[in-house]
Amino acid sequence: MTIAEVVPSLLSGLAVPGADNTLNLPSSRRVVLLLVDGLGHELLRSHAERAPFLASLSSREINAGFPSTTATSLASIGTGLLAGEHGVVGMSFSVGDEVLNALTWSRAGDHHHDLRKVLVPEVVQPHPTVFERAAAAGVAVSTVAPLNQRTSGLTRAVLRGSWFRGVAGFGDLALGAVAAVQQDRSFCYAYHADLDMIGHLYGPGSDEWLLQLEFVDALASRIAARMPADSLLVVTADHGMITADDRIDFDTEPLLWEGVRVITGEPRVRYLHTESDEVLAVWRDFLGDRADVVRREEAVDAGWFGPVSPLALDRIGNVVVAMKNSAVIIRGQAEPLFSKMNGFHGSRTRQELAIPLLVHAS
């Protein structure tokens, strides 16, 4: 059971052709899907007392898919596909001669270099979205998300097909989500980002994170209280998070540079585009039990990315490095913001992959 199955399962209750309810979710003709960035299943279970409303809901654990990171998971939400098919294989990845930061749709390491004209979002992710399919079937489809995401490359790539309502905070997010499902056969995807950012800055489970979790719980409760009769609120996440205690800085380890033409990804999962076959052995020896270091073919054959299309294959890199335990590979010079963070995600641990699927029927 993966994040890619959530929206198709919900759209089956709205009579969208080809939408299968593989998750066996309740059927409703008015649905709000609230995605809370960074709300891992393990984190919510460990701190249930700080989120009494969410903890009271019907709950199950599903899988975010690999890599367990926002751009990839939002693409899975929007397309009903996993990374190997939709091709958004991480926060940053190679597309031709460019390295794309999918969150900002800019050149990785240079957020001022807008790539929307060079790497057209609808070409980078060409599959029809589930929102487009729903809208074509007559469903009123809305996205309620931060204002600055309205015309972003990622929104165009993976969320196209919905009417976008930009919001500035909790209040208009809650009211916007409720307003979007007042008519028959309506679906609203609502997105909240701040819990993830607090987790990155202070660490998941920190006092700051716990207080933000209380706010998220209140947000979900307020949406549920205002939903029309016979409607459905579903809450999920895009990934969990771990606190990093073991940092390796690629930029200060010359041994790791040899034979690496391009390094992409993020601190918990790295893709190495290599010029030398020795890279795999060097990285395996250097990292030891701190990472799974495998050839791309091994990761594909093991099903890490789900089914893999030619679109995604070249973006993955020759070597995949999935960090274990609390280790991260930072880049102190090239990615200074990451170096200051405490919380991370992206790899294959249960803390990162397990996400909640919570259901409230009005």
Keywords:
alpha/beta, Alkaline Phosphatase, subunit A, 4-stranded antiparallel β-sheet, 2 domains, 7-stranded mixed β-sheet, 26% strand, 17 helices, Gyrase A, domain 2
Task: Report what the structure shows.
The protein is of the alpha/beta class. It has 17 helices and 19 strands. The longest helix is centred in the middle third of the chain and has 20 residues, at 207-226. The mean pLDDT is 97. The relative contact order is 0.21. Strand 13 and strand 14 (269-274) form a beta hairpin. It folds into two domains: 3-242 and 349-361, Alkaline Phosphatase, subunit A (3-Layer(aba) Sandwich), CATH 3.40.720.10; 244-344, Gyrase A, domain 2 (2-Layer Sandwich). 34% of the residues lie in helices and 26% in strands. Helix 9 (170-179) runs parallel beside helix 11. The strands form five sheets. Strands 2-19-10-1-9-7-8 form a seven-stranded mixed sheet, with helices on both faces. It has a four-stranded antiparallel sheet with strand order 3-4-5-6. A four-stranded antiparallel sheet has the order 13-14-16-15.
